Amino acid sequence: MSLKQYKAKRDFTKTPEPRAEDHAPEKKKPKGLIYVIQEHHASRLHYDLRLEAKEEKETVLKSWAIPKEPSLEEGIKRLAVQTEDHPFSYRDFEGTIPKGEYGAGSVKIWDKGTYQPLEKETSKWVIRIQGVKLQGAFALIKLKAKDPKDKNWLFFKHKEPAEK
Ligand code: MN
Questions:
Q1: Which of 39, 47, 117, 155 would bridge 80 by S-S if both were Cys, CB 3.0 to 4.6 A apart?
Q2: What pTM was estimated for this model as a whole?
């Protein structure tokens, strides 16, 4: 996935969202990879989880829309629908996407910090999140797709892996 989908879905003369060009991480960035969750009051409230990752030599934010508030409690699994990669500059975005535009509604940061990958396979990521609300090990597990268009994952608090 590249930022093509991100650009194709948006009219940057109308939305205040960042253009995709500014994607390079600045030099003075916190140690670790960026983690952010944006609370998005679109037609349905959801939480957009974004994780910094390298994609085709570009730094992007891998993205998932989570319909219910993420939980710190082990055993509470949230559906997380993978959405298009977002530009790195989206990490700070807060604002209102106007009516009629893609994702219309207000966006604010719900939690942010950094993460470290502990395990990263195609369908399973285990990460350590250092946020304000979310902290500790979390998993993202891709569900078996009936249709190639299905991009359903589960996001949940993982038990702490044994120290190596
Ligand atoms: Mn959203």
A1: 155
A2: 0.91
